[in-house]
Amino acid sequence: MLATGVLVVGLVGAASAVTSLANLRRTYTETQAAITVARAELERIREMPFNQILPTYQNGVAFTVDADGDGAGDLSSPSPNQTAGNPYYGPLTVGGTPTLGRVDAEVVTSVPPAALGKLLRCVARVRWSGINGTREVRLVTMVSDGGS
Fold first, then answer.
1. I want to staple 36 with a disulfide (CB 3.0 to 4.6 A). Which of 67, 77, 81, 101 is the partner?
2. Residue 28: pLDDT above 90?
3. Distance of CA 51 to the CA centre of its chain
4. Among 124, 105, 106, 135, which residue's Cα sits nearest to residue 40?
5. Rounded to an integer, what distance in angstroms lies between the CA atom of residue 40 and that of residue 64?
6. Where are the beta strands (DSSP E) in 20-132?
7. How far is Cα 119 from Cα 84, in angstroms, rounded to an integer?
8. Residues 105, 55: contact at Cβ < 8 Å?
9. Which residues contact 47 (CB under 8 A, 6 or more apart)?
10. How does pLDDT run across 3-14, given as a tens digit for each residue?
């Protein structure tokens, strides 16, 4: 009888560990997809001519999260139940339209222009509803015109 009780406790513990590991793996996969796509968006900006970045991205540009390139989104949008009353947890928007990914550019004014030329801060964000609730990845890069 005692051995059966110990065995049951051990099996419940093992099942709990397996479930936790599966959730952790899913969270890792979701986060990697978000980082991969956000990084690609920032690299796209870095390849653009400097004088086109601000006009293109100053009001935000939406992007989809399709890291595997199969045409289907890899992440789920935050649900209204998760976001009630808290805009941080709601979907990102561009022009009032919800999106999973958004990239913005803004002029950095806290650095003297003579030091680096004109400097832009570019931010790529992905917000999604994951296995552990609403999550967000935010990557930032700086782009300079090199003082020219």
1. 67
2. no
3. 26
4. 124
5. 11
6. 61-63, 92-94, 97-99, 101-107, 119-130
7. 37
8. no
9. none
10. 777 666 666 676
Of the candidates 106, 119, 101, 126, which has an alpha carbon nearest to the alpha carbon of residue 56?
106
Phi, psi of 146, deg, nearest 5: 75, 15
Copy the structure tokens of residue 23.
């959730």
Report the distance separating Cα 64 and Cα 62, nearest Å: 7
**107 strand-pairing partners:** 120
Residue reference for tokens 């006009």:
55
Both tokens of 143, joined, read 């782009």
DSSP 3-state of 108: coil
Helix/strand/coil for 131: coil
pLDDT tier, 19 (very low <50, low <70, confident <90, very high otherwise) = low
* Mean pLDDT for the chain overall: 78
| Tokens (6 digits) for 120 | 């832009």
User: Per the structure block, which two tokens stand in for 49?
Assistant: 């001519």
- Three-state SS at 116: helix
| Total residues found in the chain within this entry | 148
The pair phi, psi for residue 62, each rounded to 5°, is: -80, 150
| Single-letter amino acid, residue 69 | G
Chain position carrying tokens 């990084």: 39
- Encoded tokens for 140: 């930032």
